[in-house]
Structure formats: C-alpha cells, structure tokens
Amino acid sequence: MKKPTIVGLTGSIGMGKSTVADMFERAGVPVFDADAEVRRLQGPDGELIPAIEQAFPGSTGPTGVLRERLGELVFADSDALARLEAIIHPVVGRNRTAFLAEHADKPLLVFDIPLLFEKGGHEAVDYVVVVSAPAEAQRERVLARPGMTPEKFEHILSLQVPDAEKRAKADYIIDTGQSLKDTEQAVAALVEKLILERVSD
Ligand SMILES: CC(C)(COP(=O)(O)OP(=O)(O)OC[C@H]1O[C@@H](n2cnc3c(N)ncnc32)[C@H](O)[C@@H]1O)[C@@H](O)C(=O)NCCC(=O)NCCS
Ligand SMILES: Nc1ncnc2c1ncn2[C@@H]1O[C@H](COP(=O)(O)OP(=O)(O)OP(=O)(O)O)[C@@H](O)[C@H]1O
C-alpha cells in the first residue's frame, strides 16, 4: 500500500495556522494538531501533569496546567523552556506516530506543528506548508488576544524562526492576509494538487 503524503503545516504566532488546519480538515484531510495534543496532555488528568508539577512546582491546578503561569516561567528563561520541551515533545512525537499508523490508508495527512522548523521536524514530512500574512496583520491579530502585550509578543517572536526564513524554506505558502474565503479556496486547490500528484507519481 502506498504511504500517505505528509504535509507539515507551520507558521509563526498569529499567522492563522489553526484556522488553515481547520480548512484542511473540511477538505477531508486528517490533521494531527500538535498544540491540541499538548493541551490534552496538560489538561485536567493529563498524562504530563505530574512531571510538569514536579519540574515547575505550582504550575498546575485542578484544571491542569495553569498556562499563563507556566508561560511566565518558561518564556522568560530558555533553560526552563528546554526542560518543559523535554517533558512534552517525546510524548507528542509518540502520539504522532500512532496517528500515522491509524491513517496509513489515507492519501494525504497534515501534521500541524507550530515549531516545525525550530525543532527540526521538517525533514520528516514530504512537503512544508507555511501559513503567512503581512507582519501588520499578524501583530494586530495577536495583540487582540486577551492577556497579550507588545513585549510578550516581541519575545515570543524572538523565540521563533522569522517568517521570511520560513517562507524561503516552504514548499508552499498559504496566504492568510486575504479573505477567509480566498484562503479556503487556496487550501482546497493545494489538497487537490497534492492528491493528484501522488496518484501520478
Ligand atoms: C508554556 C505554555 C503552557 C503557554 O501556553 P499559552 O496557552 O499561554 O501559549 P501558547 O501555547 O498558545 O503559545 C503562544 C505562542 O508561543 C509559541 N510557543 C509555544 N511553545 C513554544 C516553544 N517551546 N518555543 C517557541 N515558541 C513557543 C506558540 O507557537 C505560540 O505561537 C505552552 O506554550 C507550552 O506548554 N509550551 C511548550 C510545549 C510546546 O513546545 N508547544 C508548542 C508546539 S508542540
Ligand atoms: N484569510 C485568513 N486566513 C486565516 N485566518 C484569518 C484570515 N483572515 C482573518 N483571519 C483570522 O486570524 C486569526 C488567526 O488565528 P489562528 O488561531 O488561526 O492563528 P495561529 O497561527 O494558529 O496562532 P498561534 O500560533 O498563536 O496559535 C483568526 O482569528 C482568523 O479568523
């Protein structure tokens, strides 16, 4: 049986990656959502709560990880962030492998991975799709989020591979600086192209 084509979907903060991932799902493509997986593992009764509480005392409660508190601890301290990542990333990787096995009969799959370039996962996918919009649109979207400040935004940006570099390394770019409808059409066209290419391979 032919293996599924794997698309790695990524993009910097606020570029519209989650919205575009939903568009892939609506086009019939199963999506592994690394962020959702992290939230599940960190949620109430999440598998990683004991390890996170041990490494970062006071960072969890009855609702699971206290995201804002943990964010304050790790986004300001790169060693702390590396410790948190060492707890989380191996488990996410394991669950991604299980997702792949479950969907081995599908033509196309999407791995929605915010840190695809930062963590070197781009070698493990067939195509990298970068979600991108003008910096002004990105800034406006992110600053509209509750609890976000310009300082926090700049700092998170500094932890991420710059958008220009992501674009340069992409196989395909999905522009989210246009209307949602136009972006959805671009996603549907890309899905069709990738499935056709696979068949004629
Ligand atoms: C620290 C946590 C709890 C803060 O949660 P919060 O809901 O406040 O923020 P959120 O997860 O939406 O992240 C905000 C922005 O920071 C970026 N970001 C998150 N983790 C990282 C990281 N390890 N390195 C660089 N950027 C990161 C996200 O891509 C996003 O653009 C959470 O980000 C976390 O657990 N991060 C570590 C796990 C991880 O690496 N997740 C990302 C992909 S699997
Ligand atoms: N053409 C478009 N495509 C995608 N999103 C758009 C578009 N136009 C406006 N938006 C809006 O931009 C926002 C993007 O948010 P989204 O959560 O998808 O970003 P994200 O990149 O996943 O963020 P983060 O990396 O911070 O988790 C949404 O509110 C969405 O409705």
UniProtKB/TrEMBL annotation:
Q: Which domain of life is it from?
A: Bacteria
Please give the biological process terms from Gene Ontology that the record holds: coenzyme A biosynthetic process
SUPFAM superfamilies given for it? P-loop containing nucleoside triphosphate hydrolases (SSF52540)
The annotated pathway is: Cofactor biosynthesis; coenzyme A biosynthesis; CoA from (R)-pantothenate: step 5/5
Where is it located? Cytoplasm
Short name of one Pfam family for this protein? CoaE
**CC per GO annotation:** cytoplasm
Entry binding sites for ATP: 14-19
Sorted keywords for this record are:
ATP-binding, Coenzyme A biosynthesis, Cytoplasm, Kinase, Nucleotide-binding, Transferase
Q: Output the InterPro entries linked to this UniProt entry.
A: Depp_CoAkinase, P-loop_NTPase
Reaction catalysis annotation? 3'-dephospho-CoA + ATP = ADP + CoA + H(+)
EC assignment: the record states 2.7.1.24
According to the UniProt entry, its GO molecular function terms are: ATP binding; dephospho-CoA kinase activity
Nucleotide-binding among keywords? yes
Family annotation (Gene3D superfamilies): P-loop containing nucleotide triphosphate hydrolases
Q: Which family does it belong to?
A: Belongs to the CoaE family.
Checking HAMAP family in the record gives: Dephospho_CoA_kinase
Q: What does this protein do?
A: Catalyzes the phosphorylation of the 3'-hydroxyl group of dephosphocoenzyme A to form coenzyme A.
The protein depicted here goes by the name Dephospho-CoA kinase
Q: What is the lineage of its organism?
A: Bacteria, Pseudomonadati, Pseudomonadota, Alphaproteobacteria, Sphingomonadales
Provide the gene name from the record.
Answer: coaE
